[in-house]
Amino acid sequence: AAIERVVACLEDASFDVRMTALKNIVSIAGKSNAYAIGCIASRLASTSTYTRWSSAECLLVMDTKGNREVLSQILVHIDNTDRFIRQDIVGAMVGVLLPSDYLIVIQHLGTPQMIEQAKQLQSDAIDLRKAAEAKSIQVRETNKPARKEAKRLEHEVEGAKRDLADQKWLDANPCLIVTQRKQGLLKSMQALAAARESVDGSNTPEWEAVEENAHTLKTLCLDALQAKYADDKARRGATYVLTNHIPGLSDFANNIAGGVS
Fold first, then answer.
1. How far apart are the two ends of the chain, measured CA to CA in Å?
2. Burial class (CB in 10 A: 0-12, 13-18, 19+), 194
3. Where are the strands (E) in 3-127, listed by range?
4. Tally of CB atoms within 10 A around 185
5. What angle do CA 58, 63, 68 make, to 5 degrees?
6. Measuring CA to CA, which of 34, 96, 125, 170 is 20 to 30 A from 219?
7. 101: Cβ–Cβ under 8 A, 6 or more apart, which residues?
8. Burial degree of 232 (CB within 10 A; 0-12, 13-18, 19+)
9. What is the pLDDT of residues 97-113, one digit of tens each?
10. For 139-186, what is each residue's pLDDT tens digit?
11. pLDDT at 235 exceeding the cut of 90
């Protein structure tokens, strides 16, 4: 009952109510609750743009990436006569697809130009990742002092947490000291996060290029799907292609067929 009430809030006219539901769904239902995910997926066919958007965002915070059953639940609603509803459902679908699925979609549903662009992106991705990994090694080597500082801060944070969790320590110290210890802990945690970021080498321009490449491939997949599902003649064939070529999706073919006339 609690899950139904929270999911129902995705249909509320108030933006704040919908956002509250989005923020609390995981704490109430858990990230993998199949019933909750099914209830959310059914809202993707709503006539309300805001409900469809909130539902798609809600699926992203749940544990749905690569889940073929969830993908089938989304495809059940794709045979909608409203082109704009289909467009939003496609957006939710891409959020559930795996990066490896993007290439399959483009290969079978994309234009020749899209297919060639996807091949180039895939080729570039190998070189970009090699460059990013090499840069990470270089950053880690040149940031040895920062690693020492991160280690010092780790001990500092652990010590502060230990003190603040110790009732004897709390009883033995005045409020001012306890407050200062709490403030010191927050500062140390912020400094530690910054130190770790500079040490691991994951925020370099090279890694940004890797992410941009992946995002471009995802966008290409979205464009291919949007083009097919905007076409009344091509859209049913597109669902057939997805069902038969996305690994593991054919296991749910009967469920999908029930929603596609």
1. 32
2. middle
3. none
4. 17
5. 100
6. 34
7. 66, 221, 246, 247
8. exposed
9. 999 999 999 999 999 99
10. 777 777 777 888 899 999 999 999 999 999 999 999 899 899 999 999
11. no
Query: Residue 215 has which token pair?
Result: 């995002």
User: Angle at the Cα of 194 (from 190 to 198), degrees rounded to 5?
Assistant: 170
CA dist., res. 225 & res. 92, Å (int): 11
Helix axes 205-230, 83-96, angle to 10 degrees: 140
Distance CA 25, CA 57 (A): 11
- d(C-alpha 210, C-alpha 146), whole Å: 25
Residue 146 and residue 198 in contact, taking contact as beta carbons nearer than 8 Å: yes
Chain segment 69-93, per-residue pLDDT in tens:
999 999 998 888 898 999 999 999 9
What letter represents residue 59's amino acid? L
The pair of three-digit structure tokens given for residue 250, joined into one six-digit string: 């054919």
N residues, the chain: 261
Res 43: pLDDT: 93
- The confidence score (pLDDT) of residue 55 equals 93
**Nearest Cα to 70, choosing from 260, 244, 249?**
249
Encoding tokens for residue 129? 């990742």
- pLDDT tens per residue across span 7-39: 999 999 999 999 999 989 999 988 889 999 999
H/E element, 119: helix 112-142
Tokens representing residue 27 in the block: 């704490």
Quick one: residue 139, left, alpha or beta (phi over 0 = left, psi -120 to 50 = alpha)?
alpha
Average pLDDT of the chain is 90
Q: And the tokens for 197?
A: 């970021």
Residue type, 134: A
